[in-house]
Design brief:
It contains one helix and 16 strands.
Length: about 230
């Protein structure tokens, strides 16, 4: 009984010290396989090469699809390469919300508030006619198959940077010179659409399964989580 008060006093002194220890940070999300989504594409849209290449299969119709995985937090990067692009068609790549209907042949990117379309002939649009370039120039990436377009998204600040052939406009690591912005932590899928005479149009996606052309900024990861910097 003589030791009971001492034991109680020690327990009271030690327990808060243990409680004060910082908890370990949660591990990063494991890498996942990301491709274009066969369940979310236009009827005249064909997928190939493990569903990483999307191609228009009918002339005069819409080529349209989105990725299998969406993101809403952290800093993510992906790359798209137009393998071919017909001169009389219009090709757009960009971002789409879950509400964007990838089976709607009239729902090309940027026509409503559920998507952002970045067009090969310059400009980024949403909601039909709202240009969202944030005062910057969207680089031309229509030179298929030589141009590689990189998009780096900081979901926590709602900023997007673009690079063509590895050269960024602005500095994603520093958080300056972004191409355009969106509401932070919006959930986005990667998406692509084309309309007009786009029989030959095709786009390859790199969500992180292979090496990027642009350098992954410090603190960022690939869209699929397999690459980190």
């Amino acid at each position: 009984m003589l030791f009971s008060p001492i034991r109680s006093a020690l327990a009271g002194a030690v327990q808060p010290a243990f409680n004060a220890l910082p908890s370990a940070a949660p591990p990063p999300a494991p890498p996942v396989t990301v491709t274009w989504d066969p369940a979310n594409k236009g009827y005249d849209t064909a997928l190939s090469e493990g569903d990483l290449v999307v191609t228009a299969s009918l002339s005069g119709n819409i080529m349209i699809t989105r990725s299998t995985v969406a993101r809403s937090a952290g800093k993510q990067m992906f790359e798209l390469t137009p393998l071919s692009h017909s001169s009389d068609g219009i090709l757009a790549v960009g971002l789409a919300k879950a509400a964007w209907d990838a089976t709607d042949v009239a729902g090309y990117l940027g026509t409503n508030a559920n998507s952002i379309g970045i067009y090969t002939n310059g400009g980024a649009y949403t909601n039909g006619s709202d240009e969202i370039n944030n005062g910057s120039t969207i680089p031309d990436f229509a030179n298929a198959p030589t141009d590689v377009l990189t998009l780096a998204l900081n979901f926590d600040t709602g900023k997007v940077w673009m690079a063509v052939n590895g050269t960024f406009v602005g500095d994603p690591a520093a958080g300056t010179g972004e191409a355009f912005t969106f509401t932070p932590n919006t959930e986005w899928y990667v998406a692509v659409s084309g309309f007009g005479s786009v029989t030959a149009d095709s786009v390859r996606a790199n969500f992180g399964a292979s090496a990027f052309t642009a350098t992954l900024p410090s603190g960022w990861s690939s869209w699929d989580g397999s690459q980190t910097a």
